[in-house]
């Protein structure tokens, strides 16, 4: 009624805000951070302010339009289905108390059922910026100076799992934003032959379906085979956090042959205190990943005429990354895996290892990484390596979230060129007409569909995979016009 244009413009910005916010929420989930309504709303307002600053023609008054109110938050939850992600965190003392209660309950369960360390498993996800180097290296500086896509912000999600005795490490799950990366085609890679379970979606997230698939195709068969070979009873306990990909009803989705598996969820806000994989296992893996990566750089630059910068830009691809992931996971030793249970199940540490396991030999590993880095011409120290590992747990900026969103919306442009014909882009007027029609359709479906959540998710899926492409064309043209005027 006379404000259609302003409403549409604001809605478009809020769409961007909410997409970036979802990525941020998922990253916080991978970090096991406690997030609640207040933290989400504050991050939403910060993202909105950053986007308005970068939007051509936006005024100072527009920055105060979005309040991230309670009403917006409730609608955001309905639109995105993040109910189970939002944790109404309590104080640290309450987390400690919940952890203490869980430890007692866990011990009673283990004693009652007679679980051995070989039969008790833990799994956890983590994000990996697989092409990232310490900030002060000249390669990082050069990459950050380039406009457009920064490959150092390319991320995948990993899921690791092992038992409390440390003698069974499961095949990791890898989730990436591209189903068949260009390197897979170039080297004719068969995904089924990889040493990881390869899955993909446009956000590189572990979903409920992907996790269930991994449980039934990797965890169940490997664990059952191991127990039979060890002549142990067919009973197993899998401990994990209560992430959205691990819903309470997961037990019912196990195949019948794996009905002897019991799934136990850690209490909310206790993951950093109790989760075994979070007790230096994942950080140890990331240090090993960095070490093996530097070893590979050294080998290439010593044996060929390829410079480090050329290797980094043209030869270090996702398949090479998977090979390093495999070696790094293999390098996580039994001692590290056993000691990870000392907080949740200290008795298992004593039973599995008579030697002292409280201290891990992480300092020599860091020193090795620094030495390798210096050998190939990268000036780094131990603090740089620690910072690199910890960067995965730092809050992402709006710029970094935007980069992850860009990666989630499209596969490598070079990959798609050979797969489809070049299409002529429609006119701006035609795109605007389509967008207006799409808003009417989406609004109609959301208003009249009997299941609002299903309708909104379907609309969002179509928007992300189709409509957004044309919005980006308009945005690019507006930016080009603004640049010419400047």
**Parts with pLDDT < 50 across at least 5 consecutive residues:** 1-10, 86-94, 355-360, 411-422
Taking the sheet with the most strands, its summary is: 6 strands, mixed
Shape: globular
Distance between the termini: 34 Å
Going by CATH, the homologous superfamily of the largest domain would be Ribonuclease H-like superfamily/Ribonuclease H
Q: How much is the average pLDDT?
A: 82
How much is the radius of gyration in Å?
A: 24 Å
Number of domains: 3
Give an account of the 3D structure.
Strands 4-3-2-1-5-6 form a six-stranded mixed β-sheet. The chain is an alpha/beta fold. It folds into three domains: 1-89, no CATH class; 93-393, Nucleotidyltransferase, domain 5, CATH 3.30.420; 430-486, no CATH class. The longest helix has 34 residues, at 452-485. Helix 1 packs across helix 2 (37-54), helix 1 packs across helix 16 (398-409) and helix 18 (428-448) packs antiparallel against helix 19 (452-485). It has helices spanning 4-30, 37-54, 70-80, 92-113, 138-145, 182-186, 208-229, 271-274, 281-303, 308-315, 318-331, 334-339, 346-352, 362-375, 382-390, 398-409, 413-417, 428-448, 452-485, and strands at 120-129, 155-163, 173-176, 197-200, 236-240, 261-265.
């Amino acid at each position: 009624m006379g404000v259609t244009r302003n409403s549409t413009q604001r809605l478009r910005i809020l769409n961007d805000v909410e997409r970036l916010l979802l990525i941020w929420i998922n990253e916080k989930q991978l970090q096991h951070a406690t997030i609640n309504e207040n933290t989400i709303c504050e991050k939403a307002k910060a993202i909105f302010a950053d986007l308005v600053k970068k939007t051509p023609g936006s005024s100072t008054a527009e920055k105060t339009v979005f309040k991230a109110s309670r009403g917006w938050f409730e609608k955001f939850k309905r639109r995105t289905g993040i109910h189970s992600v939002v944790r109404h965190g309590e104080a640290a003392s309450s987390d400690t108390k919940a952890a203490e209660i869980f430890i007692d309950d866990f011990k009673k369960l283990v004693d009652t059922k007679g679980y051995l360390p070989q039969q008790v498993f833990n799994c956890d996800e983590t994000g990996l910026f697989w092409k990232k180097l310490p900030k002060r290296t000249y390669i990082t500086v050069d990459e950050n100076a380039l406009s457009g896509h920064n490959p150092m912000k390319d991320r995948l999600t990993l899921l690791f799992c092992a038992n409390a005795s440390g003698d069974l490490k499961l095949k990791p799950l890898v989730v990436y934003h591209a189903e068949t990366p260009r390197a897979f085609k170039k080297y004719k890679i068969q995904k089924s032959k990889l040493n990881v379970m390869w899955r993909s979606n446009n956000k590189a997230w572990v979903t409920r379906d992907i996790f269930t698939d991994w449980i039934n195709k990797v965890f169940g068969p490997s664990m059952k085979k191991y127990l039979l070979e060890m002549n142990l009873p067919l009973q197993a306990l899998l401990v994990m956090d209560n992430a959205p990909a691990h819903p309470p009803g997961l037990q019912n989705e196990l195949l019948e042959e794996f009905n002897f598996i019991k799934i136990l969820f850690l209490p909310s806000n206790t993951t950093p205190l109790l989760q075994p994989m979070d007790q230096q296992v994942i950080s140890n893996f990331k240090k090993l990943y960095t070490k093996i990566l530097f070893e590979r750089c050294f080998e290439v630059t010593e044996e060929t005429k390829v410079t480090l910068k050329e290797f980094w830009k043209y030869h270090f691809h996702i398949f090479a990354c998977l090979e390093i992931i495999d070696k790094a996971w293999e390098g996580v030793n039994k001692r590290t895996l056993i000691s990870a249970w000392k907080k949740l199940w200290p008795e298992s540490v004593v039973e599995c290892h008579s030697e002292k396991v409280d201290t891990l030999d992480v300092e020599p590993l860091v020193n090795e990484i620094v030495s390798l880095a210096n050998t190939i011409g990268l000036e780094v120290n131990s603090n740089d390596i620690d910072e690199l590992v910890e960067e995965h747990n730092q809050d992402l900026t709006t710029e970094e979230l935007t980069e992850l969103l860009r990666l989630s919306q499209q596969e490598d442009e070079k990959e798609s060129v050979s797969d489809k014909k070049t299409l002529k882009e429609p006119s701006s007027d035609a795109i605007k007409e389509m967008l207006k029609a799409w808003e009417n359709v989406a609004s109609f479906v959301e208003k009249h569909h009997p299941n609002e959540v299903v309708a909104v998710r379907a609309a969002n899926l179509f928007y992300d995979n189709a409509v957004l492409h044309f919005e980006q064309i308009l945005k690019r043209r507006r930016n080009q016009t603004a640049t010419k005027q400047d």
